[in-house]
Prior knowledge:
Blueprint: E1 2-5, H1 8-12, H2 24-32, E2 35-36, H3 42-47, E3 52-53, E4 64-70, E5 73-77, E6 82-90, E7 96-100, H4 149-167
Amino acid sequence: MTLFAPPDNAFLNLPSGTLNGLSEEKKVKLVLYHVLPKYYSMEDLVDVSNPVPTQAGGEHGSLGLNFSGRANQVNVSTGVVETPINNALRKDFPFAVYVMDQELLPLEFTQAPAPEGSSAPPMEKPAKAPSSPAADGDGSSPAKNGGGRKVDMGVGLVGGLVMLCMAFL
């Protein structure tokens, strides 16, 4: 298994409301989007046939990731985000954990569904909203504190998945 783990800062850099606007089903898909059902070394990721299916998309290639680069520098792309894989927290078979700077958002999560029978262009990515003081008056904003509990839940889900995978090793 291969897991891509974004650090806390990756969640803080998302546009305000990105995670809060997802249904529970999409939150689960987002976590599974960071997991490949097969072990890949950095060298394997350079030569892999794109797109690589994730646990979120099943075997038909939907919700896949694309990889490019050279042996010591690999980039991962979702169609929305392209980010380098910075280092490996674990790289020994049968389980690899790689860190990257940005959260991997699938293209389908940033597009509005077109009305049936319509060929309307996909919705543009929403502009980052300016931060405003929090309701409790402490001067912090939801964008600065990661959107509150929902971001903590997302980080907890990814962390829990890592711990679960480590338990099987």
